[in-house]
Specification:
The chain is α/β, with parallel strands linked by helices. The protein contains four helices and 14 strands. Strand 1 (about 175-180) and strand 2 (about 185) form a beta hairpin. Helix 1 (about 5-30) runs antiparallel to helix 2 (about 35-60).
């Protein structure tokens, strides 16, 4: 049932073992006297496997061969032939081990009867509690004045934490400078409401970084403006050739007195965009991941208040089965 005949089975078993035997030969063949026992063992193992294969092939061709007319084993006596000589050369087996040699050691029974005595006591029923001490009323916790559950005032002191206080944020010095003649850098300005850039041209850019409670006025025409990580900061400018970008800001304001092609708002919470110039309304406003965005424009009648329009923050997408595409529109809230 899935196995080879006896002789081929012995041959296949040796072939499997020969793979590892060759590794032993390669490792110890040239290692001197220390490797000779390993080499001799592999050679003898091969000889035994070969002899076993030949014996099985000669006497057990298709399986173990039994003598159907054999006698009683008790009356069998080895005699004559190769089998008798082989039997005489086999030494006598060793004597059997003493009784209890293979038994697992057992734990000594506990004093007083062990588990059986314990179970016997439990089976006494109500009599098992006869030896217990009775609890009187004055021994109960609710009746004892010296074991009140209330914690006495002032007895326990609050545990003091040993953790070091959080390190205060490092304050950077304010900076306002023209770098390389092409980039105005305004950084770390706090409550500076009189910042002015008046000597600029259309090849230069303006970059605001981590300013708080400040106001920057840009006079003239610049290439682009970027406000990054600012809080409660305002920019007033006339013209920007490329765009005005607001990123990672909170509660900021932008006032355009002239024109700008594009205003991009990204990751900003709270922005007011004032379009004060005659051509300011021609701007394109791009928003992403932002909230609380409002655009204020000049009214037709100068005596009227400015027109405030919120930019959408919520969108609705629907699948069009005819075109096979998704259509997204802004959600407008009335009221």
């Amino acid at each position: 049932q899935g196995l080879s005949l006896p002789a081929p089975h012995v041959e296949e078993s040796w072939q499997s073992a020969e793979f590892y035997g060759n590794k032993v030969l390669v490792q110890y063949r040239n290692s001197g006297p220390s490797g000779e026992p390993h080499v001799a063992y592999i050679k003898k193992l091969k000889e035994v496997s070969t002899a076993l294969r030949d014996y099985v092939k000669a006497h057990h061709t298709t399986g173990p061969a039994w003598n159907p007319s054999g006698g009683d084993l008790k009356t069998f006596k080895a005699g004559g032939g190769g089998a008798a000589a082989a039997a005489k050369s086999i030494p006598a087996p060793p004597p059997p081990p003493p009784p209890g040699f293979f038994d697992e050691p057992r734990a000594a029974p506990a004093a007083g009867g062990g588990m059986s005595a314990l179970m016997g006591e439990l089976n006494q029923g109500s009599g098992v509690t006869t030896g217990l001490k009775k609890v009187t009323d004055d021994m109960k916790t609710k009746n004892r004045t010296d074991k009140s559950g209330a914690v006495p005032g002032g007895s326990a002191k609050p545990q003091q934490t040993t953790a070091a206080p959080a390190a205060a944020a490092k304050k950077m010095p304010p900076k306002m400078a023209l770098e390389g003649g092409r980039k105005w850098v305004v950084e770390h300005q706090v409550n500076a409401t009189d910042l002015v850039i008046d000597k600029c041209d259309m090849r230069q850019t303006v970059y605001l970084y981590k300013c708080e409670g400040s106001v920057l006025q840009i006079k003239g025409k610049v290439n682009g403006i970027c406000m990054d990580q600012c809080k409660k900061t305002a920019i007033v400018f006339q013209y920007a050739v490329a765009q005005c970008e607001v990123v990672n800001c909170t509660s900021v304001q932008i006032q355009v007195d002239g024109s700008v092609p594009t205003i991009q708002v990204d990751k900003t919470d709270g922005i007011q965009i004032y379009l004060m110039g005659e051509k300011s309304n021609d701007v394109s406003i791009l928003t992403a991941k932002s909230s609380e965005m409002n655009v204020l424009t000049k009214p037709a009648n100068p005596d009227d208040d400015m027109l405030e329009s919120p930019l959408p923050e919520q969108f609705e997408s629907k699948f069009d089965a005819k075109s096979g595409k998704w259509t997204t529109v802004a959600v407008a809230h009335s009221g």
